[in-house]
Design a protein that fits this description.
By secondary structure, the protein is α/β, with parallel strands linked by helices. It folds into 2 domains: about 230 residues, 3-Layer(bba) Sandwich (FAD/NAD(P)-binding domain); about 120 residues, D-Amino Acid Oxidase, Chain A, domain 2. The strands form 4 sheets. Strands 8-7-16-17-18-15-19-22 form an 8-stranded mixed beta sheet, with helices on both faces. Strands 10-4-3-14-21-20 form a 6-stranded mixed beta sheet, covered by helices on one side. β7 and β8 form a beta hairpin. α1 runs parallel beside α9 and α9 runs antiparallel to α10. It is globular, with a radius of gyration of 22 Å. Bound molecules: 8-demethyl-8-dimethylamino-flavin-adenine-dinucleotide (RFL) and P-hydroxybenzoic acid (PHB). P-hydroxybenzoic acid binds next to β17.
Length: about 400
Protein backbone atom coordinates (compact mmCIF):
# COMPACT_ATOMS: atom_id res chain seq x y z
CA UNK A 1 0.00 0.00 0.00
CA UNK A 2 1.33 3.48 -0.86
CA UNK A 3 0.37 6.24 1.53
CA UNK A 4 0.34 10.02 1.41
CA UNK A 5 -1.17 12.30 4.05
CA UNK A 6 -4.49 12.61 2.19
CA UNK A 7 -4.87 9.48 0.08
CA UNK A 8 -3.89 5.81 -0.12
CA UNK A 9 -3.93 3.31 -2.93
CA UNK A 10 -4.22 -0.46 -2.64
CA UNK A 11 -4.26 -3.26 -5.20
CA UNK A 12 -6.34 -6.44 -4.98
CA UNK A 13 -7.93 -8.99 -7.32
CA UNK A 14 -11.59 -8.58 -6.32
CA UNK A 15 -13.00 -5.52 -4.53
CA UNK A 16 -16.20 -6.49 -2.73
CA UNK A 17 -18.71 -3.77 -1.83
CA UNK A 18 -20.84 -4.68 1.21
CA UNK A 19 -20.24 -6.91 4.25
CA UNK A 20 -23.67 -8.54 4.37
CA UNK A 21 -23.92 -12.31 3.86
CA UNK A 22 -23.24 -12.02 0.07
CA UNK A 23 -20.07 -10.00 0.39
CA UNK A 24 -18.61 -11.91 3.33
CA UNK A 25 -19.40 -15.33 1.86
CA UNK A 26 -17.90 -14.36 -1.49
CA UNK A 27 -14.79 -13.07 0.28
CA UNK A 28 -14.38 -16.32 2.18
CA UNK A 29 -14.87 -18.55 -0.88
CA UNK A 30 -12.44 -16.46 -2.95
CA UNK A 31 -9.87 -16.54 -0.14
CA UNK A 32 -10.10 -20.34 -0.06
CA UNK A 33 -9.52 -20.39 -3.81
CA UNK A 34 -6.39 -18.25 -3.32
CA UNK A 35 -7.96 -15.05 -4.73
CA UNK A 36 -7.12 -11.81 -2.92
CA UNK A 37 -10.07 -9.59 -1.97
CA UNK A 38 -10.95 -6.51 0.05
CA UNK A 39 -14.42 -5.95 1.56
CA UNK A 40 -15.64 -2.35 1.81
CA UNK A 41 -18.70 -1.72 4.03
CA UNK A 42 -20.39 1.57 4.85
CA UNK A 43 -21.67 0.54 8.31
CA UNK A 44 -20.02 -0.73 11.51
CA UNK A 45 -19.86 -4.49 12.24
CA UNK A 46 -22.25 -3.96 15.19
CA UNK A 47 -24.81 -2.28 12.91
CA UNK A 48 -24.56 -5.08 10.32
CA UNK A 49 -25.16 -7.66 13.08
CA UNK A 50 -28.11 -5.75 14.54
CA UNK A 51 -30.30 -6.23 11.43
CA UNK A 52 -32.69 -9.12 12.08
CA UNK A 53 -33.51 -10.80 8.80
CA UNK A 54 -33.57 -14.31 7.37
CA UNK A 55 -34.00 -17.47 9.37
CA UNK A 56 -34.31 -20.40 6.96
CA UNK A 57 -31.39 -21.85 4.99
CA UNK A 58 -31.73 -24.25 2.08
CA UNK A 59 -29.48 -27.31 2.03
CA UNK A 60 -27.53 -25.83 -0.91
CA UNK A 61 -26.82 -22.79 1.28
CA UNK A 62 -25.64 -24.89 4.23
CA UNK A 63 -23.46 -26.89 1.80
CA UNK A 64 -21.92 -23.63 0.59
CA UNK A 65 -21.27 -22.44 4.15
CA UNK A 66 -19.50 -25.78 4.72
CA UNK A 67 -17.48 -25.24 1.52
CA UNK A 68 -16.48 -21.83 2.91
CA UNK A 69 -15.35 -23.53 6.14
CA UNK A 70 -17.85 -21.69 8.37
CA UNK A 71 -20.51 -24.36 8.95
CA UNK A 72 -19.36 -25.70 12.31
CA UNK A 73 -21.50 -23.59 14.70
CA UNK A 74 -24.48 -23.80 12.33
CA UNK A 75 -24.43 -27.61 12.50
CA UNK A 76 -24.09 -27.50 16.30
CA UNK A 77 -26.73 -24.85 17.04
CA UNK A 78 -29.02 -24.72 13.98
CA UNK A 79 -32.32 -26.61 13.91
CA UNK A 80 -32.92 -29.04 11.04
CA UNK A 81 -36.58 -28.89 9.98
CA UNK A 82 -38.16 -31.79 8.07
CA UNK A 83 -41.36 -29.90 7.31
CA UNK A 84 -43.57 -26.86 7.97
CA UNK A 85 -47.26 -26.27 8.53
CA UNK A 86 -49.88 -24.39 6.54
CA UNK A 87 -52.75 -23.04 8.65
CA UNK A 88 -56.11 -22.10 7.13
CA UNK A 89 -59.79 -22.59 7.89
CA UNK A 90 -58.99 -23.09 11.58
CA UNK A 91 -56.69 -26.10 11.12
CA UNK A 92 -53.02 -26.87 10.39
CA UNK A 93 -51.75 -29.12 7.58
CA UNK A 94 -48.18 -30.41 7.50
CA UNK A 95 -45.96 -30.23 4.44
CA UNK A 96 -43.49 -33.08 4.91
CA UNK A 97 -40.45 -31.68 3.13
CA UNK A 98 -38.28 -34.70 3.89
CA UNK A 99 -40.72 -37.24 2.45
CA UNK A 100 -41.78 -35.14 -0.54
CA UNK A 101 -38.24 -34.29 -1.68
CA UNK A 102 -36.44 -37.59 -1.19
CA UNK A 103 -34.81 -36.64 2.08
CA UNK A 104 -34.13 -32.91 1.79
CA UNK A 105 -34.60 -30.54 4.74
CA UNK A 106 -34.03 -26.88 5.67
CA UNK A 107 -31.92 -25.39 8.47
CA UNK A 108 -33.28 -22.78 10.87
CA UNK A 109 -30.25 -20.61 11.69
CA UNK A 110 -30.42 -16.82 11.78
CA UNK A 111 -28.79 -14.57 9.20
CA UNK A 112 -27.21 -12.71 12.12
CA UNK A 113 -25.40 -15.90 13.13
CA UNK A 114 -24.32 -16.67 9.54
CA UNK A 115 -22.92 -13.14 9.30
CA UNK A 116 -21.17 -13.43 12.67
CA UNK A 117 -19.54 -16.75 11.64
CA UNK A 118 -18.35 -15.19 8.37
CA UNK A 119 -17.01 -12.09 10.15
CA UNK A 120 -15.13 -14.29 12.65
CA UNK A 121 -13.63 -16.42 9.87
CA UNK A 122 -12.59 -13.30 7.97
CA UNK A 123 -10.84 -11.72 10.91
CA UNK A 124 -9.22 -15.07 11.92
CA UNK A 125 -7.75 -15.28 8.38
CA UNK A 126 -6.55 -11.68 8.66
CA UNK A 127 -8.40 -10.62 5.51
CA UNK A 128 -8.81 -6.90 4.85
CA UNK A 129 -12.24 -5.45 5.66
CA UNK A 130 -12.99 -1.75 5.79
CA UNK A 131 -15.99 -0.83 7.94
CA UNK A 132 -17.57 2.63 8.13
CA UNK A 133 -16.34 3.55 4.66
CA UNK A 134 -18.05 6.76 3.50
CA UNK A 135 -18.83 8.04 0.00
CA UNK A 136 -18.05 4.72 -1.68
CA UNK A 137 -17.82 5.18 -5.47
CA UNK A 138 -17.00 2.92 -8.44
CA UNK A 139 -14.77 4.03 -11.34
CA UNK A 140 -13.61 2.72 -14.74
CA UNK A 141 -15.95 -0.26 -14.45
CA UNK A 142 -15.74 -1.06 -18.16
CA UNK A 143 -11.93 -1.07 -18.24
CA UNK A 144 -9.55 -3.86 -17.18
CA UNK A 145 -8.58 -1.79 -14.10
CA UNK A 146 -11.74 -0.81 -12.24
CA UNK A 147 -11.34 1.15 -9.00
CA UNK A 148 -13.31 1.70 -5.82
CA UNK A 149 -12.85 4.93 -3.90
CA UNK A 150 -14.01 5.71 -0.37
CA UNK A 151 -13.45 8.11 2.46
CA UNK A 152 -12.43 6.93 5.90
CA UNK A 153 -11.31 9.12 8.82
CA UNK A 154 -11.02 12.08 6.47
CA UNK A 155 -8.63 10.24 4.11
CA UNK A 156 -9.49 9.24 0.53
CA UNK A 157 -8.63 5.60 -0.19
CA UNK A 158 -8.56 3.86 -3.54
CA UNK A 159 -8.67 0.13 -4.24
CA UNK A 160 -7.58 -0.99 -7.71
CA UNK A 161 -8.94 -4.39 -8.70
CA UNK A 162 -9.47 -6.78 -11.61
CA UNK A 163 -13.16 -7.13 -10.72
CA UNK A 164 -15.72 -5.47 -8.46
CA UNK A 165 -18.44 -7.51 -6.75
CA UNK A 166 -21.49 -5.39 -5.93
CA UNK A 167 -22.84 -7.10 -2.78
CA UNK A 168 -24.24 -3.92 -1.24
CA UNK A 169 -27.92 -4.72 -1.02
CA UNK A 170 -30.98 -3.06 -2.51
CA UNK A 171 -29.97 0.53 -1.61
CA UNK A 172 -26.27 0.15 -2.51
CA UNK A 173 -24.07 2.13 -4.87
CA UNK A 174 -23.14 -0.74 -7.23
CA UNK A 175 -26.40 -1.15 -9.15
CA UNK A 176 -26.73 2.65 -9.19
CA UNK A 177 -23.33 2.83 -10.96
CA UNK A 178 -24.66 0.98 -14.02
CA UNK A 179 -26.01 3.35 -16.70
CA UNK A 180 -29.82 3.45 -16.75
CA UNK A 181 -29.96 2.54 -20.44
CA UNK A 182 -28.05 -0.71 -19.78
CA UNK A 183 -30.15 -1.92 -16.85
CA UNK A 184 -33.69 -3.30 -17.10
CA UNK A 185 -35.51 -3.27 -13.76
CA UNK A 186 -38.67 -5.26 -13.06
CA UNK A 187 -40.58 -4.42 -9.89
CA UNK A 188 -43.79 -5.20 -8.04
CA UNK A 189 -44.54 -3.51 -4.72
CA UNK A 190 -47.11 -5.32 -2.56
CA UNK A 191 -49.84 -3.33 -0.79
CA UNK A 192 -48.86 -4.44 2.74
CA UNK A 193 -45.84 -5.06 4.98
CA UNK A 194 -44.63 -7.53 7.60
CA UNK A 195 -44.39 -6.54 11.22
CA UNK A 196 -41.83 -8.81 12.88
CA UNK A 197 -40.92 -9.36 16.51
CA UNK A 198 -38.17 -11.31 18.22
CA UNK A 199 -38.89 -12.65 21.74
CA UNK A 200 -37.30 -15.07 24.18
CA UNK A 201 -40.16 -17.52 24.54
CA UNK A 202 -40.52 -21.13 23.33
CA UNK A 203 -41.85 -21.67 19.78
CA UNK A 204 -45.57 -22.30 19.25
CA UNK A 205 -44.77 -25.54 17.43
CA UNK A 206 -41.65 -27.56 16.52
CA UNK A 207 -41.98 -26.36 12.91
CA UNK A 208 -42.78 -23.06 11.18
CA UNK A 209 -46.47 -22.17 10.76
CA UNK A 210 -47.55 -20.11 7.73
CA UNK A 211 -51.13 -18.93 8.26
CA UNK A 212 -53.69 -17.61 5.79
CA UNK A 213 -56.40 -15.86 7.81
CA UNK A 214 -59.19 -13.41 7.02
CA UNK A 215 -57.43 -10.90 9.28
CA UNK A 216 -54.21 -11.30 7.26
CA UNK A 217 -51.12 -13.48 6.97
CA UNK A 218 -49.13 -14.62 10.00
CA UNK A 219 -45.89 -16.58 10.36
CA UNK A 220 -44.55 -18.28 13.47
CA UNK A 221 -40.83 -18.83 13.02
CA UNK A 222 -37.97 -19.23 15.45
CA UNK A 223 -34.26 -18.77 16.00
CA UNK A 224 -33.80 -21.50 18.62
CA UNK A 225 -35.86 -23.56 21.07
CA UNK A 226 -36.00 -20.53 23.34
CA UNK A 227 -36.27 -17.63 20.85
CA UNK A 228 -39.09 -16.94 18.39
CA UNK A 229 -39.39 -14.74 15.32
CA UNK A 230 -43.04 -14.03 14.49
CA UNK A 231 -44.59 -11.90 11.77
CA UNK A 232 -48.06 -10.51 11.00
CA UNK A 233 -49.15 -8.84 7.77
CA UNK A 234 -49.71 -5.14 8.49
CA UNK A 235 -50.70 -1.99 6.66
CA UNK A 236 -47.98 0.01 4.90
CA UNK A 237 -49.20 3.03 6.90
CA UNK A 238 -48.58 1.29 10.24
CA UNK A 239 -45.72 2.47 12.44
CA UNK A 240 -43.86 0.21 14.87
CA UNK A 241 -45.06 2.53 17.69
CA UNK A 242 -48.68 1.64 16.77
CA UNK A 243 -47.98 -1.95 17.79
CA UNK A 244 -47.57 -2.58 21.50
CA UNK A 245 -46.37 -6.08 22.36
CA UNK A 246 -49.86 -6.88 23.69
CA UNK A 247 -51.49 -5.82 20.40
CA UNK A 248 -49.02 -7.93 18.43
CA UNK A 249 -49.58 -11.09 20.48
CA UNK A 250 -53.39 -10.64 20.36
CA UNK A 251 -53.31 -10.23 16.59
CA UNK A 252 -51.03 -13.23 16.08
CA UNK A 253 -53.21 -15.40 18.33
CA UNK A 254 -56.32 -14.37 16.36
CA UNK A 255 -54.69 -15.53 13.10
CA UNK A 256 -53.81 -19.05 14.33
CA UNK A 257 -55.88 -22.21 14.77
CA UNK A 258 -57.31 -22.69 18.30
CA UNK A 259 -54.74 -25.34 19.32
CA UNK A 260 -51.69 -23.27 18.28
CA UNK A 261 -53.28 -20.13 19.78
CA UNK A 262 -53.72 -21.92 23.11
CA UNK A 263 -50.07 -23.08 23.09
CA UNK A 264 -48.63 -19.66 22.29
CA UNK A 265 -46.36 -18.28 25.02
CA UNK A 266 -46.00 -14.50 25.02
CA UNK A 267 -43.22 -12.29 26.37
CA UNK A 268 -41.59 -8.90 25.86
CA UNK A 269 -40.23 -8.24 22.37
CA UNK A 270 -36.48 -7.72 22.04
CA UNK A 271 -36.79 -6.36 18.49
CA UNK A 272 -39.73 -5.11 16.46
CA UNK A 273 -39.64 -3.83 12.88
CA UNK A 274 -41.76 -3.40 9.75
CA UNK A 275 -40.53 -4.52 6.32
CA UNK A 276 -42.22 -3.67 3.02
CA UNK A 277 -42.67 -6.50 0.51
CA UNK A 278 -41.46 -6.28 -3.07
CA UNK A 279 -40.41 -8.37 -6.04
CA UNK A 280 -37.51 -6.76 -7.92
CA UNK A 281 -35.01 -7.93 -10.52
CA UNK A 282 -32.31 -5.89 -12.29
CA UNK A 283 -30.95 -7.34 -15.54
CA UNK A 284 -28.20 -8.01 -16.49
CA UNK A 285 -26.24 -8.80 -13.32
CA UNK A 286 -22.94 -7.87 -14.96
CA UNK A 287 -21.69 -4.61 -16.39
CA UNK A 288 -18.06 -4.56 -17.56
CA UNK A 289 -15.96 -5.79 -14.65
CA UNK A 290 -18.78 -5.25 -12.12
CA UNK A 291 -20.88 -8.24 -10.98
CA UNK A 292 -24.01 -7.82 -8.84
CA UNK A 293 -24.88 -10.45 -6.23
CA UNK A 294 -27.72 -10.82 -3.73
CA UNK A 295 -30.14 -8.04 -2.83
CA UNK A 296 -28.12 -5.58 -4.97
CA UNK A 297 -29.64 -7.31 -8.02
CA UNK A 298 -32.93 -8.74 -6.75
CA UNK A 299 -35.46 -8.70 -3.93
CA UNK A 300 -38.09 -11.32 -3.17
CA UNK A 301 -40.97 -10.94 -0.71
CA UNK A 302 -39.85 -12.97 2.35
CA UNK A 303 -42.77 -15.44 2.26
CA UNK A 304 -40.76 -18.14 0.46
CA UNK A 305 -37.63 -17.62 2.63
CA UNK A 306 -35.57 -17.22 -0.52
CA UNK A 307 -33.64 -13.90 -0.25
CA UNK A 308 -30.54 -15.04 1.57
CA UNK A 309 -30.57 -18.37 -0.23
CA UNK A 310 -30.65 -16.62 -3.58
CA UNK A 311 -27.78 -14.39 -2.49
CA UNK A 312 -25.79 -17.52 -1.59
CA UNK A 313 -26.62 -19.08 -4.98
CA UNK A 314 -25.32 -15.98 -6.83
CA UNK A 315 -22.15 -16.09 -4.74
CA UNK A 316 -21.68 -19.76 -5.54
CA UNK A 317 -21.87 -19.10 -9.29
CA UNK A 318 -19.67 -16.00 -9.06
CA UNK A 319 -16.97 -17.54 -6.85
CA UNK A 320 -16.71 -20.58 -9.12
CA UNK A 321 -16.57 -18.35 -12.22
CA UNK A 322 -13.82 -16.15 -10.75
CA UNK A 323 -11.85 -19.22 -9.66
CA UNK A 324 -12.12 -20.54 -13.24
CA UNK A 325 -10.86 -17.18 -14.52
CA UNK A 326 -7.79 -17.13 -12.27
CA UNK A 327 -6.94 -20.83 -12.11
CA UNK A 328 -8.10 -22.30 -15.43
CA UNK A 329 -7.64 -19.01 -17.34
CA UNK A 330 -11.10 -19.21 -18.92
CA UNK A 331 -13.77 -16.49 -18.97
CA UNK A 332 -16.60 -18.89 -19.80
CA UNK A 333 -17.96 -18.79 -16.23
CA UNK A 334 -17.86 -15.03 -15.80
CA UNK A 335 -19.36 -14.51 -19.26
CA UNK A 336 -22.26 -16.82 -18.38
CA UNK A 337 -22.73 -15.56 -14.79
CA UNK A 338 -25.63 -13.18 -15.37
CA UNK A 339 -27.67 -15.60 -17.52
CA UNK A 340 -27.15 -18.50 -15.15
CA UNK A 341 -27.87 -16.51 -11.98
CA UNK A 342 -30.98 -14.87 -13.47
CA UNK A 343 -32.46 -18.21 -14.46
CA UNK A 344 -32.45 -19.25 -10.81
CA UNK A 345 -33.47 -15.77 -9.62
CA UNK A 346 -36.67 -15.77 -11.72
CA UNK A 347 -37.67 -19.21 -10.43
CA UNK A 348 -37.28 -18.00 -6.84
CA UNK A 349 -39.14 -14.79 -7.74
CA UNK A 350 -42.00 -16.87 -9.12
CA UNK A 351 -42.16 -19.09 -6.04
CA UNK A 352 -41.99 -16.14 -3.62
CA UNK A 353 -44.72 -14.29 -5.53
CA UNK A 354 -46.86 -17.45 -5.59
CA UNK A 355 -46.63 -18.06 -1.83
CA UNK A 356 -47.19 -14.35 -1.13
CA UNK A 357 -50.29 -14.36 -3.36
CA UNK A 358 -51.58 -17.57 -1.75
CA UNK A 359 -51.19 -16.51 1.87
CA UNK A 360 -51.85 -12.75 2.21
CA UNK A 361 -55.01 -10.69 2.38
CA UNK A 362 -55.14 -8.47 -0.74
CA UNK A 363 -57.36 -5.42 -1.32
CA UNK A 364 -60.26 -6.24 -3.68
CA UNK A 365 -59.46 -5.81 -7.39
CA UNK A 366 -61.52 -3.51 -9.68
CA UNK A 367 -63.81 -6.33 -10.97
CA UNK A 368 -64.14 -8.23 -7.67
CA UNK A 369 -67.29 -8.69 -5.63
CA UNK A 370 -67.95 -10.80 -2.56
CA UNK A 371 -64.76 -12.30 -1.18
CA UNK A 372 -63.45 -13.82 -4.39
CA UNK A 373 -59.75 -13.46 -3.56
CA UNK A 374 -59.92 -15.18 -0.18
CA UNK A 375 -62.21 -17.97 -1.49
CA UNK A 376 -59.80 -18.67 -4.37
CA UNK A 377 -56.91 -18.90 -1.90
CA UNK A 378 -58.83 -21.28 0.37
CA UNK A 379 -59.72 -23.50 -2.59
CA UNK A 380 -56.10 -23.56 -3.71
CA UNK A 381 -54.85 -24.37 -0.20
CA UNK A 382 -57.44 -27.15 0.10
CA UNK A 383 -56.29 -28.55 -3.27
CA UNK A 384 -52.64 -28.21 -2.28
CA UNK A 385 -52.81 -30.17 0.96
CA UNK A 386 -54.77 -33.00 -0.71
CA UNK A 387 -52.68 -33.31 -3.87
CA UNK A 388 -49.37 -35.17 -3.69
CA UNK A 389 -48.30 -33.48 -6.94
CA UNK A 390 -49.04 -29.95 -5.68
CA UNK A 391 -47.38 -30.58 -2.30
CA UNK A 392 -44.30 -32.02 -4.03
CA UNK A 393 -44.00 -28.90 -6.17
CA UNK A 394 -44.30 -26.67 -3.10
CA UNK A 395 -41.78 -28.76 -1.16
CA UNK A 396 -39.15 -28.92 -3.91
CA UNK A 397 -39.23 -25.15 -4.32
CA UNK A 398 -39.14 -24.53 -0.55
CA UNK A 399 -36.08 -26.71 0.05
CA UNK A 400 -34.38 -25.11 -2.98
CA UNK A 401 -34.13 -26.14 -6.63
CA UNK A 402 -31.01 -27.95 -7.82
CA UNK A 403 -28.19 -25.94 -9.35
CA UNK A 404 -27.59 -25.71 -13.07
CA UNK A 405 -24.43 -27.65 -13.94
P1 LIG B 1 -27.57 -7.09 2.64
O1 LIG B 1 -27.78 -8.06 3.75
O2 LIG B 1 -28.52 -5.98 2.49
O3 LIG B 1 -26.09 -6.53 2.79
C1 LIG B 1 -25.61 -5.46 1.99
C2 LIG B 1 -24.50 -4.76 2.74
O4 LIG B 1 -24.00 -3.70 1.94
C3 LIG B 1 -23.85 -2.53 2.73
N1 LIG B 1 -23.91 -1.33 1.87
C4 LIG B 1 -22.83 -0.66 1.44
N2 LIG B 1 -21.53 -0.86 1.64
C5 LIG B 1 -20.67 0.00 1.05
N3 LIG B 1 -21.09 1.06 0.30
C6 LIG B 1 -22.37 1.30 0.07
N4 LIG B 1 -22.77 2.33 -0.68
C7 LIG B 1 -23.32 0.41 0.64
N5 LIG B 1 -24.68 0.33 0.63
C8 LIG B 1 -25.01 -0.72 1.37
C9 LIG B 1 -24.98 -2.63 3.74
O5 LIG B 1 -24.72 -1.84 4.90
C10 LIG B 1 -25.00 -4.12 4.03
O6 LIG B 1 -24.16 -4.47 5.10
O7 LIG B 1 -27.54 -7.86 1.23
P2 LIG B 1 -26.98 -9.33 0.86
O8 LIG B 1 -25.63 -9.55 1.46
O9 LIG B 1 -27.18 -9.48 -0.60
O10 LIG B 1 -27.95 -10.34 1.65
C11 LIG B 1 -29.31 -10.45 1.30
C12 LIG B 1 -30.14 -10.85 2.52
O11 LIG B 1 -29.84 -9.94 3.57
C13 LIG B 1 -31.67 -10.85 2.24
O12 LIG B 1 -31.93 -11.39 0.96
C14 LIG B 1 -32.46 -11.70 3.26
O13 LIG B 1 -32.36 -11.14 4.55
C15 LIG B 1 -33.94 -11.79 2.87
N6 LIG B 1 -34.76 -12.49 3.88
C16 LIG B 1 -34.77 -13.88 3.94
N7 LIG B 1 -34.00 -14.62 3.12
C17 LIG B 1 -33.96 -15.99 3.23
O14 LIG B 1 -33.24 -16.62 2.45
N8 LIG B 1 -34.67 -16.67 4.19
C18 LIG B 1 -35.49 -15.99 5.07
O15 LIG B 1 -36.06 -16.64 5.96
C19 LIG B 1 -35.58 -14.55 4.94
N9 LIG B 1 -36.36 -13.83 5.78
C20 LIG B 1 -35.57 -11.75 4.75
C21 LIG B 1 -36.37 -12.46 5.69
C22 LIG B 1 -35.60 -10.36 4.71
C23 LIG B 1 -36.43 -9.66 5.58
N10 LIG B 1 -36.43 -8.26 5.50
C24 LIG B 1 -36.07 -7.43 6.58
C25 LIG B 1 -36.60 -7.65 4.23
C26 LIG B 1 -37.20 -11.78 6.56
C27 LIG B 1 -37.26 -10.37 6.49
C28 LIG B 1 -38.21 -9.67 7.43
C1 LIG C 1 -37.67 -15.86 9.63
O1 LIG C 1 -37.48 -16.71 10.51
O2 LIG C 1 -37.29 -14.69 9.76
C2 LIG C 1 -38.40 -16.26 8.40
C3 LIG C 1 -38.73 -17.58 8.21
C4 LIG C 1 -39.43 -17.96 7.07
C5 LIG C 1 -39.79 -17.01 6.14
C6 LIG C 1 -39.44 -15.68 6.33
C7 LIG C 1 -38.75 -15.31 7.48
O3 LIG C 1 -40.50 -17.40 5.05
Amino acid sequence: MTTSSSSTSQRTQVAIIGAGPSGLLLGQLLHRAGIANVVIEQRSPEYVLSRIRAGVLEQVTTDLLDEAGVGQRMHAEGLVHDGFELCFGGARHRIDLHRLTGGRTVMVYGQTEVTRDLMDARSAAGLPTVYEAEQVSLHDITTARPRVRYLKDGVVHEVQADFIAGCDGFHGVSRASIPADVLRCHERVYPFGWLGILADVPPVSDELIYSNHERGFALCSMRSKTRVRHYVQCSLDDKVEDWSDARFWDELRARLDPEAAARMVTGPSIEKSIAPLRSFVAEPMRYGQLFLSGDAAHIVPPTGAKGLNLAAADVRYLSHALAEHYVEKTNAGIDDYSRKALRRVWKAERFSWYLTSLLHRFPAGPGDSGDVGHRMQTAELDYLVHSEAAMTSLAENYVGLPFEA
